Amino acid sequence: MRDWTAASGLAIDLCGATNQSKVTVEIIEALERHTASFTVPPGGKGEIRLPWAMWARRDKQDSDWKASKAQAPDDGLQLTEMTYIALWPDEGAPLGLSVGAIRLYR
């Protein structure tokens, strides 16, 4: 688990993409899922910054579809127990995406 409280947000360095799709980024903190979205810039390259204020609690949590999971807290993004990051394209939009780095920024 990681503590991200000193950061202002998450930065993603894109190295290339096949189109300008919308991408959703998900992070998990202590079982609670949060998401933010961005649109791939023209040319598919550049730095994407997702400040913490852009993130929202995902409607569907693990406990909604996995009976064996503990109930996800609903306490907002605390940034103290980060365990997971995932990216996926908008539904129905195939996307090839090359990511150089995912990092925190201040």
| Gross geometry | globular
- What is the typical, i.e. mean, pLDDT? 90
Q: In percent, how helical is the residue content? A: under 10%
N-to-C order of helices and strands: EEEEEHEE
Task: Explain what this protein looks like in three dimensions.
By secondary structure, the chain is mainly β. It has 1 helix and 7 strands, in the order βββββαββ. It has one helix at about 60-65; strands at about 10-15, 20-30, 30-40, 45-50, 55, 80-90, 95-105. A 4-stranded antiparallel beta sheet has the order 5-3-2-6, with no helix packed on it. A hairpin with a 2-residue loop joins β2 (about 20-30) and β3 (about 30-40). It is globular, with a radius of gyration of 14 Å. About 10% of the residues are buried. The model has no long low-confidence stretch (mean pLDDT about 90).
Put the structure in a nutshell.
The chain has 106 residues and is mainly beta. It is built from one helix and seven strands; from the N terminus they run E-E-E-E-E-H-E-E.
Summarize the helices and strands and which ones pair or pack:
Elements: E1 9-17, E2 22-29, E3 32-39, E4 46-51, E5 56-57, H1 62-65, E6 82-89, E7 97-105
Antiparallel strand pairs: 1-4, 1-7, 2-3, 2-6, 3-5
